[in-house]
Design goal:
By secondary structure, the protein is α+β, with helices and mostly antiparallel strands. The chain contains ten helices and 19 strands. Helix content is about 30%, strand content about 25%. Strands 1, 2, 9, 10, 11, 12, 18 and 19 form an eight-stranded mixed sheet that branches. It has an eight-stranded mixed sheet with strand order 6-7-5-14-15-16-13-17. It has a three-stranded antiparallel sheet with strand order 3-8-4. The structure holds flavin-adenine dinucleotide. Flavin-adenine dinucleotide (FAD) binds next to helix 1, strand 13, strand 17 and helix 9.
Length: about 375
Amino acid sequence: MGDELPRTADVLVIGAGIVGCSVAFHLAASGAGAVLVVDREDAVGRGSTGACAGGFRQQFTSEVNIHLSRASIPMILRFTEEHGIPVDVSQDGYLFLVRDDAAWAGFRSAVELQRSLGVEVEVLEPEAAGALLPGIDTRGLVGATFGPKDGIADPAALTQGYATLARRAGVTFALDTSVTAIEVDAAGAVTGVRTSRGPVAASAVVLAAGAWSGALAATAGVEVPVEPVPRVVVTTGAFPRVPARRTLVIDAASSFYFHREGNGVLMGMGGRDVTTFDTTVDERFVHDALVPRAVTVFPPLAEAGIRSRWAGLYEMTPDRNPIVGPGPVDGLWIAAGFSGHGFQHGPIVGKVIAELVTGAAPSVDVSPLSLSRFGTGDLAREGHVV
Ligand SMILES: Cc1cc2nc3c(=O)[nH]c(=O)nc-3n(C[C@H](O)[C@H](O)[C@H](O)COP(=O)(O)OP(=O)(O)OC[C@H]3O[C@@H](n4cnc5c(N)ncnc54)[C@H](O)[C@@H]3O)c2cc1C
């Protein structure tokens, strides 16, 4: 806790995950005045960001997600060079394995969209996928898509990196401090927040509280449809035929994925989407679903032992796209509900929110991500959610 909590801020950011830290840095860099980041944890990046697998890719089905990736990935790749803070990055690609004809048609049309937007993506025969990552079971594969410019970066390093840059630019971080309500006056404008350490006045509040954003928005009378859905990650020890490259491989049918991590692999899989904040690892799911699928997709994993496991929260919206932009209340800005893609989109979304708050033209058109889309019933669901 340490320092006294400032009683006023020009912009107050709720949440110090990758999104809040990027927002804070970009606000400070664009001269937004006194910026205060509030997080209830004792360190930055302890929410979903701390559980994240670190993947980034341009292989999405929604145009806006592809635009976000094309703007955000260069920010991740160039972070060390631009800011002098080391972030571990590898660009060994993402490989989607597809096993049925209907899904394959969807992947082919996604590839067309991706290519039309300038994405480098290859369509591979099963044998070529097997040659790319020896050990994959190619039986029953219809085809694969490979994005050679996709990759993996260290989420903790990038988040700490943005927090460090933000602090250097004058941002204050109030950790161990819970926001209990966003306050709105009778005219319908944000006036600040209430916290576990007292009130803070601010005419602009950025809601970047990840899976917890819905409850906070409700205190301002705003409905933000973000639901917590746990996802498990498992790492293994060393095993014979561990992949030589760090390509992130995804079995599209099951959403099982893995990539080399150290001398083993890191792997995970979507399951039944249960809405809960409980992040206890479901051991039955690990042993009865994830491990058997892992061995089917990549048989060398039969000789791997589990080294560690944890679970974190996806922050799901109804259409699996984030909510980015102004709220319906004056002075409220929302950057939440990334549905499992917030690590890779955090850098650019932080920049875009700073641009919107300071009245500059946004680097990416985020109008398709407005909160108001949920009132229209006209939702285009992101299809490539792992
Ligand atoms: C297992 C797993 C794997 C993933 N893999 C990937 C991946 O490969 N690539 C990718 O792009 N994304 C991935 N994601 C998704 C990614 O982690 C999230 O989308 C991203 O971290 C969201 O960042 P955020 O800053 O919005 O939220 P968070 O990191 O959750 O930050 C929100 C912060 O708000 C704080 N907070 C909440 N309520 C309050 C309150 N009342 N008062 C004060 N503070 C509060 C929390 O403490 C937290 O620090 C993965 C997620 C999981 C769980």
